[in-house]
Amino acid sequence: xxxxxxxxxxxxxxxxxxxxxxxxxxxxxxxxxxxxxxxxxxxxxxxxxxxxxxxxxxxxxxxxxxxx
Length: 68
Known about the structure:
Elements: H1 3-16, H2 18-25, H3 31-41, H4 45-57
Helix pairs in contact: 2-3, 2-4, 3-4
C-alpha cells in the first residue's frame, strides 16, 4: 500500500466518524448510540447525515448567567 493510499484511508476514516467526534466533543448524552448509528449506517449518506443532525440537536448548552 502506497503512502497516498494510506493517507486517503486515514482521511476517509476521519470524515466517516465526524458525527461521533462531534457528539463526544459536545458532551452529548447519547454519544455512544450516535457512534453505533454512525458505525452501522454511516456508509449510507442518509445515515451519516442523521448522525450529524442528531449530534448537533442534542448538544448540551452551557447555562448562561443572566442578570435577573
